[in-house]
Amino acid sequence: MQGIIVKSIGGLYFAESSDTIFECKARGVFRKKGIVPCVGDRAEFANGVITEILPRKNYIIRPPLANLDQLIFVVSVTEPSPNLLILDKFIAVAEYQNIEPVIVLTKVDLEGYDNILDIYRQAGINVYIIDYNSENPADRIRQLLKDKISAFTGNSGAGKSTLLNEVCGDFNIPTGEISQKLGRGKHTTRHAELYKMPWGGYIADTPGFSTFETNKYNIIKKEELAGCFREFTKFDGDCKFRDCSHTKEKGCRIIEAVSNGDIPKSRHESYCCMYEEAKQIKEWEL
User: Fold this and answer.
1) pLDDT at position 119, please?
2) DSSP character for 97?
3) What is the pTM of this model?
4) What is the topology classification, in CATH, of domain 2-55?
């Protein structure tokens, strides 16, 4: 049979096929090959044993999740204020892994949000505004999630649990427990689980991303970094120097685009910071 792994805990894997959940173990040969099945994997299994992991289109390390279609960043415009550098780092990881980044802005009734909205829409990233005072945003988010494998992430206090309960609360999906299961504290078990949506698709929760370094998720080489900023694409390749780092060179088309307002300044500042960090990566870390 073939199905999707929706839960992994204690060496057991729970694969869904034809609306039925099958409890499985992994073949010992996977360990020898250094393969660890994870939630989101498409797998073949028989008699309670996973026999093959089908090719992944992407993979994030913590929590282990494979084959994500989109990573949804829940960002509060205040309390806590957004950290654009951390957000940009994780958007870059999503881009590097070919996962569609989506931003959802919360607490917009407490603070203006035009600046952050302009930055990311100009960067070509979908931004959703969540205002519980003027509308019920659940239906729009459900449409966003339909028929996709999606993960939500965001700082503690950004309103992620509130949003998940608003979107999924009518369907008895235990979103209130997800954060606790995935572990905010030292003593909680950290595991991933996919929840099937009644309208189609799956949803996973991920730990808050403020405390993790990007290289815990993926190491992006400095030469590949510009490709993780989608608004750079139409200018990349037009620079005066072929090996332009896009950080300080004269004749750099990307720096020129920042000066002209075609690329948001904060995005370029994040890129420069990430480029400096990438320069410090040792060959053995790759």
Assistant:
1) 96
2) T
3) 0.87
4) OB fold (Dihydrolipoamide Acetyltransferase, E2P) (2.40.50)
